[in-house]
Amino acid sequence: MDLGIKGKSALVMASSKGLGKAVAKELVREGANVMLCGRNEHTLLETRDEIIQEGTGKVEKVVCDLSQAKDRQELFEATMAVFGKIDLLVTNTGGPSPGQFEKFDMDDWKGFYNDIFLSAADMIKMVVPGMKQRQFGRVLTITSVSSKQPVDNLITSNVTRSSLLGLVKSLSNELAPHGITVNNIMPGYTLTDRLQQLMAGNPQLDQIKESIPMKRFGTVEEFAAAAVFLLSERASYITGQSLAVDGGVIKGY
Asked: Which CATH class for the 9-190+218-238 domain?
């Protein structure tokens, strides 16, 4: 199936590793030009060199801290300078700290909100004018199954990531007349470095796996395939949706 992505320009936030890296790699395989970003230059260089072998698309990188407004602006400007446009935007961030409610003070919550919600909203605000001008665009936010079904000991993720669902649904209605789709994708237990950190030394690992209807953890490749479809021309009539890639973990409809 031709996804119609070849030649499109994509910005994938937090893409030096994990889910962001997997999505970037899949986009390059489909022929898209991709801007990578992350905080560690060495990791970014390794990722760029790895991904550039995957397809015909150009791959560039910018070192930045997505929690900083100045860095986000510089990332946008660098991407525009290299590619001239941003057709596809994938918002992504690292997960907030685990813990229960009383562990965190108000400054912690402001930081989580800035990192998870404001970083995404800010970047979306930058790319939308160009997408409207071209009457085409794809915006995809990466959140978590915690957006729909709270995860124990991850109240920070449960709260902040769910705020993006309201943004996605509202924006999808505003931008649909301009040929721009806005969707959300929710990974479940996927074999990333973060999952392995959370599970390290956890005696309930087998129990968690058994709680997944598919009885296994997902792979980053499975997640990326779903994400890239939502970014494609083939998904032109899908907007305002939250897709769980979770092996059936979410129990609600």
From this structure: alpha beta
